[in-house]
Amino acid sequence: MEHLIERTLKTNEIFKGKVIDLEVQEVELPNGKTSSREIVKHPGAVAILPITNEGKIILVRQYRKALGKTIVEIPAGKLEKGEDPLDSARRELEEETGYKTSKLDFLLSFYTSPGFADELIHLYITDKLEKGKTNMDDDEFLDILEVSLEEAEQMVKDQTIHDAKTAYAILYLRMKASQSL
Amino acid sequence: MEHLIERTLKTNEIFKGKVIDLEVQEVELPNGKTSSREIVKHPGAVAILPITNEGKIILVRQYRKALGKTIVEIPAGKLEKGEDPLDSARRELEEETGYKTSKLDFLLSFYTSPGFADELIHLYITDKLEKGKTNMDDDEFLDILEVSLEEAEQMVKDQTIHDAKTAYAILYLRMKASQSL
Questions:
Q1: Quick check: B25 and B8 in contact, CB under 8 A?
Q2: Torsion angle (degrees, nearest 10) of CA B173, B176, B178, B181
Q3: Keyword Repressor: yes or no (chains A, B) (predicted)?
Q4: Cβ of B66 and A114 within 8 Å?
Q5: Which one of A36, A102, A161, B68 has the fewest beta carbons within 10 angstroms of its own beta carbon?
Q6: One domain, residues A14 and A50
Q7: Which residue of B has its CA nearest to A22?
Q8: Min Cα–Cα distance to chain B from A153, Å
Q9: Shared domain check, B130 and B92
């Protein structure tokens, strides 16, 4: 893929935040010309598809300040510094839904916005949940929903679910379910 | 959803770029405490699922500076100022793949990174393609791939496709295809 690579000439650090950093890179394009790239650095995140004993998917409704509204998502959260994604997934599941688990299976990982950010989300699934109690972050407030796979699929179709990672996870689960029939 | 809302107390504009802007908002949480939110403003984007006369999906392999590597995606690009998403989709399709179309159907829209960015992607589909010629942006370089739906699905499963919007679009197409059987 050598013919597609952009070489960094200079990196300007613009901002270091508590969640993201921002830098602007001057790059040399494959044709020798130069351009600039605005790049958001993100620590990475985990998301979890939690399935109850009754076969329901647990979703959370959360206010997202970036959007100025609430949206429905699977439980998710950013990686803490040096944290193993599996530990992070277990922690986020318990914090957001109140469920504990001793069995989390890794499904896949994906980039969310490769045009401007390096965020990589690791997706886990579990169908072994034990009821604990919610223990949200100081700055986290959310409602919990439990829906069947058919209901979740309908929420993707009618755009009640408007979040890429959540829709992807539900359609992935549906593909797996249809293949095991 | 009143009990989940975060009220903005102050907005600090950090950066205005050619693609994204960055601001930090001080917010009042539902419990009355304050916190800060780092928010990336994005103009929004379009993505296209182009299907050839032979039933192949057109994908592009592109170097993404944010990731430091090439990844496989459906054709996509950001909205120009004041541009209608449908016009943008037609333009991006032709620029990136060389195909023109007079028929683009809107499928759905989704947020990519609601935790820190407002990017909303509008997804279109077309199976009416006419061969034109590629006309990429000055700073855009990519390779074109044509794959069957089965091959695309396999690329999602084996993580050759590592991009959320692309995997979501392919699994959505698969769901629709399986329902019309």
A1: yes
A2: -130
A3: no
A4: yes
A5: A102
A6: no
A7: B22
A8: 10
A9: yes
